[in-house]
Structures are given as structure tokens and as C-alpha cells.
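Protocol step 4 of 6: record predicted structures for both targets in the notebook before any analysis. Target 1:
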Amino acid sequence: MEALFTFIIKSGSLIALFYFAYYFLLRKETFFTSNRYFLLAGLITSVVLPFVIYTKVVWVDPAPILYSPVVQNATASVSHNYVSTYNHLPVVEEEPFEINWNLVSLAIYAIGFAAFMLKFAIDFYSLNSVLKGKKIKQQEDFKFVDVTENIAPFSYFDYIVYNSSLYSETELQSILEHEKVHSDQHHTIDVIISRIFCILFWFNPIIWLYKKAILQNLEFIADNEASKKLSDKKAYQYTLLKITTHETCVAITNHFYQSLIKKRIVMLNKNQSKKWNYWKYYAVIPALAAFVFLFQIKTIAQEKKALAEKTASVKNEDTQVFKITKSTTDQELKDLTTKLKSEHNIDVVISDLKRNSNNEITSIKIQIVKENGKKQIIQVNSTKAIKDCSIVLDTNDNGAKNVTLTTEESPEAPTMVKTQNVVITDFKNSADAPEAPDAPAPPSAPGMVAPVPPTPPVFPAGALPPAPAIDMSKMPKPPRAPRDPKDKVSMAQFEKEMAEFEKKMEKFQPNIDAMSAYGDAVEEIMSKREAIFEKQMEQYEIAMQKFNMNMDKFNIDMKMKFGNDSDYENNMKQYELDMRRYELDMKQHEKDMKEHAKQMKQHAKDMKMQERDRRAAEKADKKA
């Protein structure tokens, strides 16, 4: 159950990452086809990437076994006497009633899943009802179905369904060209995939916004391609406005009607985006890399004693051992990696190589990529020469090769590979601010309790006020063209009404005042949260100074009790280095949080500027 919840959280995070990347970077670009594949890649990545796990092995000393025969015998004696004395007394314990929240969550998910699956089946039945018994006209690769129902035109794979009695010949031509693009580019597959993801992740609000973005982008593609094939682009836009009156449609199809008609008209008249804006598609790669390094690397601790036994057990006639000693030269390391690659197809990467004045290796990082894609890493960072380590290649009876990275003796200071936090700014919710780094855990010692570092503050979270929606209810209705184009009086009246309609469309603007008020509200909220966070950081710095004083006192006590040459002292030195790095990370975190607050304020200002620029661009396009 825990694995399922982990997968849901990881998958939902990746879906949110791709959606916000599209919303903030790509939504206003005219790379419609590239946007289509970007959105589909986001859905596939959100399902596949959580299963890609890299394994890293860290060798640790075996835990000491404490044995006290006196205590053990005393305990056994007491236990025996207790049982013999009270064995005749019946003991009845009532287990308290507890709610299994895992089962409750699973039941709620199952109910929602079943409801949406039922809705999906009903939609398929509705589609079959529309197509059943209708006359189909085959033309090229398309199957045209002319129906009598008052429904919006739609396409479903190679079927194109429409009601020809509702439209003029010019309007019908525009509609069919639009639906041909949907059918020819197989947009129905995108619709069904997005619908399946909505069923699987119905509880995630982002997936519904994701589906809306996919459907809207498919309309942009069809509008763009259809307008290229039509001579009168303006008539096509009038057709879009007319179709808004037909709201009945089939849910799992590409239907001509979409609620955001004005956006489609704006995108039709928008200039082609510049090619250098393609860099925005690669902006998501660092975030995906950070996701892998932070959540998809599994660290396995393995005791050195067990490792030595394993090394001894595999030394047979089918085992090859490649040793790396403190005196191994750079050329020998290079020849070793080349030999393993050419003869055994094993990728070995050796990096972070350091030597002392005697040309002995003191620091090295060895990384092996196995055939199944898993990685094994050992990193040594020391001031003394390293101990011998080996790459053991074992071949089993089936001819399969198993490679293991071993050490005959423990390296002085094996360390884990450090990963840096990657900041992903989400302007929808300030709760996604940069997270503070985790403090290193102090080493344990018998009879001694190390001071615990204070918990770093978290930037105040909370939802921002929702952005005001564009009010389309006051959009003027276009006039209807006369049935007889030769009627001069009717045509003159229609042209007069069209001139008035165009003037009304110029005056029709969304609520810019509400957008301005929204920006001011966001700026005020972020300023208050920034002030609270700075005050908490001041208190945290005072607590860290007190913690450092306690650590100095603790170190003195440890030296007096255990001396300078104990294993604990070595661990404490490493812990002190980690704490210094942690303090630097916290200072960087404080800078990142201040930068995050500035970005949120700048975002609010940018929204105002974008709305003003959009108004100016629409006026310029209408004048042109």
C-alpha cells in the first residue's frame, strides 16, 4: 500500500511539473504540434519514470554485538519465575478499535474509479447510438456521416459527423476541413489517453487541467491547418462564433465546439513564434534530472564482513577479479575501463581522482552501470592512501555475468554522493517554495547523547487567491447572414450589423481591473510571508549558535572519554564537515527563499503587463 501511495505522489508531481512548464512557458507559443507531443510525453513520463530506480551501495562497518551473560541469566530467571507463578491466571486483552485508513483510502479511490469508468462506458454507448443505422459516405480516407440531430460536428478516428442542414455551404466547408485535420492526425488517440489518465488519477485536480490543455491544443492544431486550406480566413472565424450555439456534443470525440472560442480566434491571428523559443522545451530536463537524483536513487547499506565473505565465496574458476590499489596508475585505470567495456560490455566510470605527494591514490569515485541499468557506486575521500578495492566479475552456469564492486578492507572515509536541491518555481501555490536541506544526523556513542540541531523554518505556505476568470458572458453575438446573397437590401443591412458587431468586439475586453487587483493581492500576501520567514530565520540563527556551543562542549567531553583515535572521533570530524556544509546550504536556502518571494512579486507584475500587452495586440490585429 505504501508503494502505491509513493507512486501516486511521484506520478502526480511529474504531471504537475509538465503542466506548469506548458502553462507558463509554452501555452502562448504557436508550436502547436510540438506542444502536442510535449503534453503526451508528460503523461508517459509520469507513469514510467517512478519505476526507474538506480541502486547505490554504501559499505558500512558491522554493528557491535553486546553480550552480558549475567544480565541475560537474571532476565531469564525473572521471566521463568513470572510464568510459573502466574501461569494459571487467564489474561484477556481487548484490542482497541482502529480505523484502517489505507483501506478507507483504497475504497474511496475504487468508488471514484468505478464511477468514472461507468461514465466512460456511457459516453461510448452515446457515440454508438449516434453512429448506429446512419448512412456512411466514404471519401478518400474519411467516412462522412450526415445526421439529423442538433449536435456539434465531431470526428472519431476516420468518422466525421455533422448536420449539413444547420450550416451554409461555406460554413460546412470550413467545418469539414477542421474535422479532417483531427481525423488525419489521429487526435482521437490523444483524447482517449487523456480521458484514461483522468480515470486513473481522478482525485488529482491537475490532471483535469492537463486534459483541458491537451484538448485546447488539438483545437489550435486543427484551426491552424484548416485556415491554411481555406481562402477566406475571416469567414472561418465567423463560423467558429456561429458554432458556439450548438452545445450538444459527444465527450470522447474531437468536436468542433470548444468553450474558449476567443482564445482560438486570437491564436489564429497570432504571429508565428520565433524558432529560438524552442529552448523552452528543454527547461524541463533539469527538473527531471533533479527528480531522479533526489527520489530515484536507492541507497543500500552492506556490511563489510558480509562483503568479504561474498568475495571469498565467488573466487572460483569462473570469477575474474580486477584490483585497484593505491599505486594503480592513471594509464592502468584507463586500460581497465577499456578492457571491461570491450570484453565484457561493462561500463565503468572512474572520476574524482586525487593523489598525495607519494603519487598514491587518496580519493576516488568508481561507478559501475550494470546490464539491467542499475548503478553501483563507491566514493572514497580521504587524506591517506586508499585500501585495495576490486571489481569482481562472476559468470554463472547460464553464462550470465554478475559484476560486484568490493573492498578487501574498509576505505577510511566512504561518503555518499552529494546532490544539490533544484528549485522549481510554481506560481500557482507558494507551498511549492524551495525546501530547506535536511540536517545531518549526529553519530551515536555509548553513554553519550549528542545535541540535536534545530529544525529550519519553512516558508509560510497557503493558497494564493484564485486568478479572476475571463468573463465571456458579455461577448456580443454575431449577426446572421441572409439566406439569399442576391438580396441587396438584406445584404446592406447585414453589412451594417457586421460593422456594429466589429465595434462591439473591439470594446469587449475581459475584466482588467480584477486582474490588477489580483496582482496587488498576491504581492501583499508574499510580502507578509517574506517578513514572517525572515523573523523565523533570525530565531533559527540564534538557535544554531547555541547548538554550535553545545556541540563544542560535547566534542570536548567525547575527547576526554574516548580519546582522539577512536572511530567515533573520525565520524565526528566527518559530521563537523557535514554541518559546515549544512550551514552553507541553509544560507543558500535563505537566499533562494528571498529570490522566490521576489519572483512571486515579479510574476504578479508580469500578469498585469501581459494583460495590457494582450489588449494592445488585439487592438492592433483588429485595426490591421
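Target 2:
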Amino acid sequence: MSVETFAGAVSMAAHEAYGRGRQERDVEHGSRDHFPAAREGSGDPESDIPPGRPVIGSAGWYYEAHEDHGTVWKANRGKDGGWDVVLDWAPYVSERLVLIGEDGKSAGRYYTITIGADTLTKSLSDLRTADGWNDFSDDSGAASRAIREVLINIITDQGKRLPRTPVVAHTGWHRLPTAGLTYVYADGRSYPPSGSVRVIGAPEPLRQAAVPLERTATDDECRRAVDDIATHGWASLMALAVGVRSLAYSLRPVSAAFVLDAAPNSGKTSAANTARSLLLTSRPHAWPPVPTKGMSSTATDIECALDFEGDMPTLLDDIPLTRASSAAQMRDMEKKLELVIRAAGNATEIKGRRNRDLTARPANRIRSIPVIAAQMLPPSMQESLYRRSVVIYLSRDGGEVDWRWYKSGGGQSLTVPLRTLGDRIIAHLHALPDADSHLAELEKRALEQLSPHVDAVLPEPGDTMDGVITAAAAMLSGLGLVAAVTGTDMAGLVDVVAAPLAASLARQAACMDAQSTAQDGVATAVGEVLRRAFSRGRLHIRDEKGVVRPAVSGQVEQDQGLVQKRDGSGWEGKGPAAYWLPGRGPALGITTKNLNMLLKASGDSRVNCYVDRSLPDALLQADAILRNNSQKDRIASHRVRVGTENLRLLLLKPDLIWDF
């Protein structure tokens, strides 16, 4: 995990604890004024009295550390003895923070350290590197590794005298060793209220947005806000349900993403922010809340932001695609959607991570229902990603979201009631004796109420849509939690959403069928592209030894991309090479890079949207290539000896290209 520093006031409790420890040390060793200045070779008997406290782990070193001053000494090994001042400052530690891992056990240490004018929080692993000290502007003399090792021992010596403060690396529900089940907010608060836990890694805008408002809403204000949301668009109420259900994600996960596929200016961000407002209020303006990340951010930025925002409404805003977007933009968005949706749907790590010694280390995860706002989804988005998502479709004036109401102040009017609702739902979830069973019952009730509407528009949804419908009902069950804390009827809220949600699911099913048909055409498209490439001299055949010659029996030279040299001495071909491998099935071998280059150049929308990394798996699914049964980690490609070269090739089925 990347180490983060975070600013803020140092906790008063930690200062008081350190103050008590300092008084104890002063009693034990005497006050700072009791020690004379260290001197070398003085012969003074007083110089035999060690200054300050010994540095455990660094023999012959002593230190004194206070918030506004300090000193580090080293014993003089000369014949006159005494102590030399090595540093006229020492790191002052006010907090010892213990990172709590996923299993509830200690997973690392952090210290809040003051050096001169800087008070920063650093991990122990970060302090062991030179970069870990770069943020301190007053650490003169700490450039050598030997000095830094002494300073680390000084820090850990102070830390062991301070109380352990649990630290978590993401928001949401945690089972803490001392406090039990606890919800941690982005600004460091917790429920039940306690000063015994901290959160690290919160971006400053997010931390500020999570700070409590000056007042809470009344019961009537909360009910009125829910009514306003329902009145101004079923999609907004559905988004609220998704956000509320996200608050309980760790207690009972929902393995799916929620996608708003919407025309420009149709209210997709307003709907998503209805959910986001359960926990966040932008400063200085109340609307709209800060998003998790924009989809134009890097994949790593998106991954880390989602990992931090656990058990809270998320928003990836916005996919800015249009029909005029380039193929590169389409592929970039599809890659990010693949990263997020597949991890959410499969409940797996977003991307595997390794330590320097190649051992596995904890990786980032989806810890909530990812909400994705899209101006347009990539036309080539795989059917398998739709299967792991619930997609609702918004039009500018279709009534799904009354964006004009939100824009004219409606969104801001929801700020206080929604923040109050968020806090009440967290308290309600904490009080449940068996949250998993209760949430399962709400999901069952939501599915029972949704199913008749789905049956009316999808009489035979099929196995593929069954999972989507179940996920939609799980998200819809968040309205049961809203009803519980507002004293309203769950069935009445679900009834607002059920029929239009079913119609949207029917549209999603049609889109999935279209994508499935398109994917089935991948193999055909690859054959057509390669057949044209051979005939137009953009690809040529070589035999299994790498020699350029007609190698496919029964096929004319032009269909193999070959022409005879003018002097009649042999054959030549243009473009990349494809290798005829009769002993492999037979098969036509080609590198992934060269094949993808030809597919992109073809302009064929069925196959010009893949990146090199995803193409082999897509071809394997389309049954266009031979499977590698000898390498479990490289099942789509083969290592083939061609002449003197050892190439990694895709082995295409030749009947896709030629008639035999």
C-alpha cells in the first residue's frame, strides 16, 4: 500500500499522554537543565552522567525530545569520555498508530512526528527510506543512513510509551480489536463515537466533504426529502437506493456495478449525487458532492480511490464518449470499465500486486457498489460486463430525472436531510443483531415486488439476465433501510421504481443480446480481415522454418500474400509474417501485435476495439484460435520454434481464412 501523509491537528489525548511520559522521564533522569552541555575530553566528573534517555538499539546514543526542542548525543570514545552533540534537534512523537489489516490484526505502524515546524504522519517502512524524510524541512544532519537508523530507534522508543491508536486504510465497517464493529467516516469520525480509531489516505477534499454539518434534519424533513426525490424522477430514487445499500456493503456484498447510461444533460450526475450526499457535502457550496474520480483519471487513480471509499456511495463521473470518439478513446474507457466492473462482479482484487521479492501482497478491492455515469458506453463493451452490471437508461426529457429541479436548488435542499439519513442508516445497521439476515430479507421483498414487472416485459429473461435482476433487487432493497429510519412504507417506495426499472432491464437485455451476437461474429471478422490482408499484399505466409514461400497447399500464391521475384529466384511478400504450421493442427501462427495491427487497420467494428492484452482471450472465447493446454497461465498463445527464433504466437484455425 502506498504511504500517505495527512495533515491536521495532533490529537490532544496523544499530547497529554506524551506529556505524562515526559514528566516520568524527567523524574527518572532529571530535567533537561540538570544535564550540562556535552563536552569532549573535559575530565569533569559530571560528564559521566548520561544526557537524556538512552536510544534503545543504538548503544552509546542518547536523546531528549520535546515538541519545541530536542538534542541527540553520542558517547565520545576518547580517553576523556563525555558526549558529543550530533544533532541539535530530535524527532518528537505524539502518536503511535497501528494499521489494522483485513483480518483485524496489526498490519503496520505509523507515527505522528514533529521536527521543527513540520508535524507529519509517516509509516515505519517509509522512514526506513531516504524519501521518507524529504517532507521534513528542518531535519538537517539526517542525510546519512546511520543517523536515520538512530532516529528511527528514537521514534520507536517514544512510540512504545504512547497508547496504541488503531488506524484503518479505508472508510466503512471494521471489526476493531477493542471497539468491535465500527463504521469509520472519511473525516476520521467513527460510529459508535470513539477517539480510538483513525483513517489514513483520505484526500483533503473528501475529508472536508465528510465533516458533519452544523445541524441535523427532523423526521419530517427527512420524509419530505425522500418524497421530493421520488417526485422528481424514479432514477434518482433508484440511485438513492444504491447509495443506501452501499452503506451495508461489507455486511452483505452486492457483486455488481450500477451504470447510468445517459444522454448529455439528462441528470445522470444529479441522480448519482443524490446517493453521494448521504455522507458528503461539498465545501463551500452544498451541491454537488465531490466525485470518487472522473473516468478520465488514470486506471491506478480510479483503483486506489475505489479501494479507499468502502461502504459509502461512490461515483465515477463521467465517461465522455460520443459517436465521434476515436478508437483509442473507446479502448481506454473499455479498459477502465473492464477493470472496475469485473472486479465488482467477481468480488476479486482489482489488480494483483507483488512485493519486490515477488511474494503476493494485499491489493486494492471494490468495497462498495461502483456507480458509473456514462454519456455513452463503448459500443464494443463485452456482454460479460453487462452481465455484471445493472444499467439504467436516461433521456434528456424522459422524466427519469428532473434535472431542472436539481439545478434550480432542489439538490441543495436535500443536503441536510440526506446527511441525517446517512448517519441514521449507519446507526440502524450497527444496531441490527444479524445484519446479513435482515438485508437478505429486504432483498427477498424487493425481488418479490420487482418480479411481476420484469415478467411483463421479459417473459423469458434467461440465465444471463437472472443474475442482473437479482442484483437489481439487491440494490433496490436499500429503500427498505430508508423506510426503516424514516418510518415510511418500503413497498410504497419500491413501487415508484419497480415498473420503470423493469423496462430499463428489458432494454439492457436487448443490448446484451446484440453484444453477444457481435461477439459471435468475431471469428468470422478475423477471417475476413486476414483474407483481405493476404490478397492485398498486407500480410504474407512463411513456412515453419521461417522461409518465405507458398506453404499452404491448395491455395494460390496471391491468397498467401506472395509474388514471385523478378529474377525467378524465389518469393517475396509485404507486411508482417504469418507462419503455416502443418504440425499444429494445422494452424496459422501470428503474433498478437501483428494481428491486432491488421484488425485495427481494417476499420471493422467487430474486431478493431481490442487492446493487445485482451485480444487473445476474446479470440479464445470466439473459438478462433487453438487453446494451449500445457501452460495454464498462457492458455491463449503458444511458444513456437520458427527457424532459429522462439516466438510467442496465436494459432489461428486456418478454415476461418481458406476453404480446404
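Step 5 preliminary note on target 2. The chain has 19 helices and 25 strands. Residues 539 and 576 are 5 Å apart (CA to CA).
Proceed to step 6 after PI sign-off.
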